[in-house]
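Title: [Solved] Probable membrane transporter protein 3D structure

Original question kept below for reference.
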Amino acid sequence: MDLFTASVFAVCIPAVIFAGISKGGFGSGVAFASASILAIVLEPGVALGLMLPLLMLIDMASLPAYWRKWDWAAAKVLLIGSVPGTLLGALFYAWTDPDAVRLLIGLVALLFVAWQMAQSTGLINLRGRRFGPGTGLTAGVVLGFTSFVSHAGGPAAAVYLLGQGLGKTAFQATTVLIFWAVNLSKVGIYAGMGIFTTETLLLDLVLVPFALFGTWLGIKAHHIVPERLFFGIAYFTLTLTGTKLIWDALT
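Solution (posted by the thread starter after getting help):
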């Protein structure tokens, strides 16, 4: 598939900017919407390989703004659990076909929206609950698995971190640190499995300015833009893309 077409750029540019805004200013929870959007127009493996270097760049660009503002104890538990989760994700990816990956990405998107709606309506309330290391390790396994197959580790991280009573900035800083490390751990496996290609890496170079621009916007918007507005747009996008991916996988 030729990646250097007007239609691919029309989808990639806003998706990458959105990822930068999300990871730079609003936690990593909805950044995986970018991979979901790309998986509609690209093979899932191509979408994953294209996004990982850009997500890593966004992580690096975001890290200085939140340096040492993270909760290391919470991050450490999640990172330990992410190791077996990442390996399980690699096995799933190796043993399944693209439609299974599309189906999983779509299901994760819709389940994430349902989870967030349950929280916003009060059906689920994690704030104020202190989760122990066991819950953190389990969340880390889920984080590693979903991060590998869909770049969607944010929801699992959020479940545990919200139960630690972190403030807005500490939550954001901790997610930036976690996904910088998790994404770094995925590089060698992605390369060994052939998920990166010459075309995806060349397109990454073209998209670098848009990723950095989105990150800058996110950092600025962190203290300005209402979270309700940002996440409302993100949830709507995830609902549409998740539904489309499930439809494509089953038809």
